[in-house]
Amino acid sequence: MSKKTEQCLLLALRTRRCKVPTQFLCYNIFEENCKDKGTILIEQRRDNACYLQFNSFQLFPNLIHGVFTRDGGYSKPPYQGLNTLGSLHDGDNLDDVIRNRQLALHSLAIEDYPCVTLWNIHGADVHVLHVPDIHNNWRPDWAHHSYYTQTWKPQEIHKGDALITQQRSVALALSFADCTPITFYDPEAQVIGIAHGGWRGTARGIVAATVAAMTEHYGSMPSNIRAGIGPAIGPCCYEVSKNVQDLFMGRQHFEDMPTQEQYRGLVRESAAFSTAQLFDRESLRLDLWETNRRQLLMAGLLPEHIEVAALCTSCHVDRFFSHRAEHGRTGRLPVIMALSEK
Ligand SMILES: [Zn+2]
Fold it and tell me: What is the pLDDT of residues 195-226, one digit of tens each?
């Protein structure tokens, strides 16, 4: 372990009563007594950035991944920390956003990799990054000013909520604030992917669509696929309207981008809603972590191949960006994956 690397285990501790984490603690990785306390993520601090890694993904030396926290980085309030969402016209300082993107890639030691992203639309469309396409149909400059200042060709604009590839030495990056990041890896077919599962994407079956795309395009067997469900707003904080529940249960349908027929049963059966009794009313809650975990199981993944961080972004705005808790004035943290050359 290098001197710059401070490695510890991040544990999500759950209370018996509400089954959601109330705190998370760092344990030294060599401590023995932390194995049975809950989901384990490995926290890495490098340079001026901090990211989390799924424990099971550590088994694969050519798999590079980081679920970043807001710790470190260059952005000022209200985007304080490692914010990777920018705009030419408003929002965070663009120079800081670009420095944060480069910092994130540098902390994973892949600053030389071309890096692609998606225009997230809360749907269930999955994009496939093929080897010959990278130089024609994609913008590989996510971590450069040209990403904002250079004109986009229509074929380079990829609207969707999941991205998969077999291409080595290319980084995939999506950015999050409360929506669920889901990372995928098939060690047999050598495929990686990231999905963006907010409530709308989850209600449209985004993770099942991602597994289907990995099977269709790369021959993945679902039983080989590993998945990690990253920090997202938890059922402790995610109050939703009855309308959201109706869309999951099929009592209503999206006017645009309706849930595809083949995913409607899966979405309905996976939906994990609960109610919390507040002092003056009942509050309907959606559990995005569990709903996406169930969808992964229904798509054929093995339970032992799914890790759930069970960390609530809204409870921990000191560590993560939360669109809900920070009333929309906040940043986005990146989730980055890549396959190394060897
Ligand atoms: Zn919470």
Answer: 999 999 999 999 999 999 999 999 999 999 99
Question: For residues 342 and 62, what is the distance between their CA atoms, to the nearest angstrom?
Answer: 6
Domain that holds residue 85: 9-339
Q: What's the confidence (pLDDT) of residue 39?
A: 65
User: What's the pLDDT at 276?
Assistant: 93
Find the 43 Cα to ligand 1 centroid distance in Å.
20
Number of separate domains in the chain: 1
Q: Does 333 map to a domain?
A: yes
Question: Is residue 1 a part of any domain in this protein?
Answer: no
CATH no. for residue 310? 3.60.140.10
Confidence check: pLDDT of 30 > 70? no
Residue 2 lies in a domain: no
322 Cα: distance to centroid of ligand 1 (angstroms): 10
Is 111 inside a domain boundary? yes
55-60 long-range contacts, Cβ below 8 Å, gap at least 24? 55/307, 56/226, 56/228, 56/305, 56/307, 57/183, 57/185, 57/226, 57/228, 60/185, 60/187
Distance 235 CA to ligand 1 centre (A): 6
Res 264 pLDDT > 70: yes
Going from the Cα of 246 to the center of ligand 1, the distance in angstroms, rounded, reads 23
**21 CA distance to ligand 1 middle (Å):** 8
Query: Ligand 1 centroid to 196 CA: how many Å?
Result: 19
